[in-house]
Design goal:
Helix content: 25-40%
Shape: globular
Number of strands: 15
GO molecular function, one term: 3-oxoacyl-[acyl-carrier-protein] synthase activity
Structural class: alpha/beta
Mean pLDDT: 93
Protein name: Ketosynthase family 3 (KS3) domain-containing protein
Distance between the termini: 26 Å
Pfam family, one: Ketoacyl-synt_C
Family: Belongs to the thiolase-like superfamily. Beta-ketoacyl-ACP synthases family.
CATH class of the largest domain: Alpha Beta
GO cellular component, one term: cytosol
Radius of gyration: 20 Å
Number of domains: 2
Strand content: 15-25%
Low-confidence stretches: none
Number of helices: 13
Order of helices and strands: EEHEEHHEHHHEHEHEHEHEHEHHEEEE
CATH superfamily of the largest domain: Thiolase/Chalcone synthase
């Protein structure tokens, strides 16, 4: 899928990260610049019977960031992350809820596991014949996430929750971009959210794709992912509306592409990923030489990093732009991950490139600049945000400074 409409321009005007390394734009950007490692022993999952014990959890209490939290107390943690991230993004965009209540605002949020923990709790309660089941059922659907966001601002626009796993928040941003370009809305809240649950932890543990402690993308001897959590939200807006209200514009969405490998369930196909990157650049009317930074999917697994490099090389040749993985700092937050990558891209466009930390000995089979020395001062003009998911669902966005 790629857009062919070159009419309306779509810009990013608000950022809302709720992450293991920082909550809010200022804290998140500071963590990216200083190379904070958000890894720690998991407290939200009982790991007693598991070999792996580490992950990246949100330490802040997000309920204080949610107006009228009592109305959403029965919702699950992913909804709470999404609500908190939305509030931060709207505040960053200078938009009061009262100004958009009752107006057409669309919401697109991605997730991998949605409210699966509520289902676990409900099944346990059912087995133990505990009361309260009926009240719990309505909150167990993944659609609760985007619905809660629109309910919190009083809008009756589209509420779409996307289950494309680890590429879902890029897909959410694409849906918002397309809706604005089509004239369906002038403002969209887009992002992703997921929480550390026993289901996510056990899945990756069972696959044998989890690292023992630190996530080390592009490093020799890398062992895999760290499960993580959080909520990422961005405000997308029609350019003319943003200009009329004097909004700060972080970037313009230049283009995108999505495709499916239709191949292996968990190992990405570098030919298909390369095709997706080429298509995204073509859609954005950007040449490979104009790209100044790639925010990699960079999970830290042997196969993923290797295949992502091969795809990058196929598109950009032997001297690609700098590539880094913020998952080295904050783990893999599943459905929220690409949204965090998009927010990191805004930092690259305005101040400099976030690093890949934990690179003690770079894999000689991946001979690219992974920004291993630390934050690199100096903004770039065009960036690419990669996101890939189980099932071969690839989603790539291109952002650029406003011209």
């Amino acid at each position: 899928m790629k857009s062919s409409d070159k009419g309306r321009r779509v810009v990013v005007t608000g950022l809302g990260p709720v992450s293991p390394i920082g909550v809010g734009k200022a804290a998140f950007f500071h963590a990216l610049k200083t190379g904070v490692n958000g890894t720690g022993l998991l407290s939200k999952v009982n790991t007693d019977r598991f070999e792996r014990k580490y992950g990246c959890e949100v330490k802040s209490t997000v309920s204080t960031l949610i107006p009228d939290f009592s109305s959403f107390v029965r919702s699950g943690t992913p909804s709470h992350f999404a609500l908190a991230a939305t509030g931060l993004a709207l505040a960053d965009a200078g938009i009061k809820r009262s100004a958009i209540s009752g107006k057409r605002v669309n919401c697109y949020f991605g997730t991998t596991y949605g409210e699966s923990n509520l289902i676990d709790n409900m099944v346990t309660a059912m087995a133990e014949s505990r009361p309260g089941l009926q009240a719990s059922v309505q909150h167990t659907f993944a659609s609760e996430i985007s619905r809660d966001v629109l309910r919190s601002i009083g809008s009756t626009g589209e509420a779409v929750t996307i289950g494309n796993a680890c590429s879902a928040s890029n897909t959410a941003l694409i849906f918002g971009y397309e809706a604005i370009k089509a004239g369906d809305c002038e403002l969209a809240i887009c992002g992703g959210s997921d929480a550390v649950y026993k289901a996510t932890f056990a899945t990756f543990h069972r696959l044998g794709s989890m690292t023992d402690k630190n996530c080390t993308p592009f490093n020799s001897g890398r062992k895999g992912v760290l499960t993580a959590e959080g909520g990422s939200a961005l405000v997308l807006e029609d350019y003319d509306q943003a200009m009329r209200r004097g909004a700060h514009i972080y970037a313009e969405v230049l283009g995108f592409s999505m495709n499916c490998d239709a191949d292996h369930m968990v190992r990405l196909n570098h030919h298909s990923v390369g095709d997706c990157m080429k298509s995204a650049l073509e859609n954005a009317s950007v040449t490979p030489g104009a790209v100044g930074y790639i925010c990699a999917h960079g999970t830290g697994t042997v196969a993923n990093d290797s295949n992502e490099y091969k795809a990058i090389e196929a598109v950009f040749g032997h001297s690609p732009p700098p590539v880094s993985s913020i998952k080295s700092m904050m783990g893999h937050s599943m459905g929220a991950a690409a949204g965090f990558g998009a927010i990191a891209c805004m930092l690259a466009l305005s101040e400099g490139l976030p690093p890949t930390i934990n690179v003690s000995e770079q894999d000689p089979e991946i001979p690219i600049d992974v920004v291993a020395e630390g934050f690199r001062v100096g903004k770039v003009d065009v960036v690419v945000n990669n996101a890939f998911a189980f099932g071969g669902n690839n989603s790539i966005l291109v952002f650029g400074n406003l011209k």
